[in-house]
TrEMBL record:
Signal peptide residues on this chain, from the entry's feature table: none
Family indicated by similarity: Belongs to the ABC-4 integral membrane protein family. LolC/E subfamily.
Major subcellular site: membrane
Annotated ABC3 transporter permease C-terminal domain residues: 665-783
Entry's transmembrane regions: 20-42, 281-303, 331-355, 376-394, 444-466, 665-687, 708-732, 752-777
One protein family per Pfam: FtsX
Membrane topology: Multi-pass membrane protein
Protein name: ABC3 transporter permease C-terminal domain-containing protein
Cellular compartments annotated: Cell membrane
UniProt KW keywords: Cell membrane, Membrane, Transmembrane, Transmembrane helix
Amino acid sequence: MSWPGIVAVARAELRVGWRALLALGLVAGLVGGLLLGAAVVADRTGSAYPRLVDRTGLDDVRAYLPADLPEVTASFAGLPGVEESWTAYAWIAQIEGPTLQYTSVIAGPDRQEDLVNPVIVAGRAPRVEAADELLVGEPLAAAAGLRVGDRITLKMLTLRQVARFDVGFGEPEGATRRMTVVGIGRMPSWSGPLGDALSTPAFAAQNAGAAGGRSGFARLAYTGDPAADEALRDRLVGALAQEYVGRPRPLVVGNYVPEVPVFPTTQVDPAVAASERVLRLGLWGFALVVALGGTVVLGQGLMRHHLRGGADQRVENALGLDGAERATARVLAALAGAVPAALVAGSVTVAAGVIEPIGSQARFEPDSGFRVDWPVVLLGVVGVLAVFLGAAAVTSALAGRGAAAAPALTRHRSVRWAVRWPALFVGLRLALRGRTLPGGASGLPAFAAAAGVAVTVAGIVASTMLGASLQRLVDTPERYGFTSDLTIADARDAEMRVLAADPRVAALSEVETGRVTLDPARSRQVDAYAHVPVKGDVPVSLVTGRLPLAAGEVALGARVAGREEKAIGDTVDVLSSDGRSATLTVTGIVVPQPERGAPLGEGLIITPEQLDDLFRQPLASAHLVAVPGQSTSLYEDVGRRLEVHLPGMPPEIDTLAGLLRLPEILAGLLAVVAMAGLVHTLVGAVRRHSRDAAVLAVLGATPGQVRAALGVLATTTVLPGVAAGVLLGLGVGRVLWWQVASQTGVAPDVAVPIWPIVLIVPAVLVGSLVLGALPALRLARTPVARSLHGA
């Protein structure tokens, strides 16, 4: 290999083409930076939840333990597979304020630092020796409007009062504690035995005798084998159930709290997983479109750059440089673009570290602020450098293929078929033929340009459908089961009569609740609801089928039906917490309004008669629909004497609500990418066919006919891609929303925004005609001789 000759050619290439190489390098660097930045944000978004799990020492198993059965509590640490554990005291307390509101607090000694250790997002952790300091969870802080430094009064309930929550207990009989909020904490979940807030060992020592229960948290000896770990969980559930055998029935455990433990590290909220999947797909989809578009732009730009030196390569070939040496020289020259590309890509990737997890996943981020992913930065810089130099090598080799021999003469078919509709048929022929470059090099086929348009349009359509479906879900509480204006906890007959007589109440239903086990072998428990109409009709969100009308029938929650793989007509065996069993036939799929913080889409609905057969004393609440304009007045009046809850937004929907802006942003970015791709594709197509246009002019075509032919070329290039993209986007959007809805527990029917999708086709076509007309006008003003000479 002649290195002096290679270096000399590289220097000559730099002298005449360094500006073009630098411009291409900047474009490639920006594209690579966007791609790598999207990867960084996608990784940070997708890893937020598992990183929070690691940082907080999320427990593998947690369980309610009855305060009146100390033997069960003492056995918790010795359950099968338990490596380390912490048993805390738990209290239910009334927060003193204008409305009736309850919260739960846990505290206890001997907690390991790597077990149940919330991330402090504001303030600090309570001091061990301070009995009046409180760390509240983010959900309680948001619901009660608490901030660091606030003082709140807690009126503690006794164990017997907690056990009488469903029938009423009067004023709290426990101690009154004045507490200071010193910090706000973040955990993957604040539900269940963890409660709403954490206090100190000093608080536990001061109030241990009045605890309403115990909460057990443990780390399990997982092996990593899914089957073995599942068997370990089953053994633990069975061993804990065995501890209750032969002992008196506890006051609290039963319908009010579950006897079965939960497994936070394996039972992740499906809405979290669905949100994470949507975010990842959106970011990676955007990165894919940018990568494909950037690759095409870079390849075409380098190809045009090297084709301008075709005559030089023939001279170099005559002087004795073979194809590999000529390509090597141009790769050396391409460093003028590759190095800036790598630097720009690395800079953009580093800057992406300021972007925290997007959407709802931001609430799981344990490390706020700037975060650089150095492995991605370093690998990305090397990758962009390699891709640019590789593209330079390939395009220079393709451009130099005809240097060793004279260009082959080609014969063109007669164009007599174009006499009647010259613009139409010539434009079609130009589009379908793609491009033929000097030296016999073949350019980008028409289907490749159409494929690029199809991918981008599909992304826009799918994003639009996802955004419309999310917006409809968030704006329509009935779709996620919230059909009432107010919910009253622990409703009693006297209060129901008063409410039914109130003219501000349009509809009222008593909802009786009991806990049932669907799969006794796995001890999976859900709530069973029975709606007893008192006044008017409070509807239930029905996905498909019908509600149960007689004993022996059941309507399953959407998430339960999916998990248990049950459909209408199937049977379900249930075992109540009172030990009574029944076999029920599925008549419908519903989204029941959850009680007591149950997950969305869980639970099942049965008839009141069936509920009476299964439970001796079910819990009761009330769902109330107010006369239009009267819900605020009712809430203010009833909230003074009863525990009343506004519908609010369940955590699962709040998680998805964090995605509302993503489809809009993604569709907008894809539209920008599509516009840039159309500009590049159409301008390049017109330029590639400048020789053809000049030939048409020589043969007698008018400037108008030439422009019309180029317009047909532009339309034919984008129309197949638009049509295919719309169809593909409709399918992708439907599948994507089905995954989100089924995992969240809501109806899976997708919202199709007709007009935005319908308008995509004419918008892209008009845009292609405009974008194609601009270079066509310029070409029409170019002398024919210059076009033939430069082609």
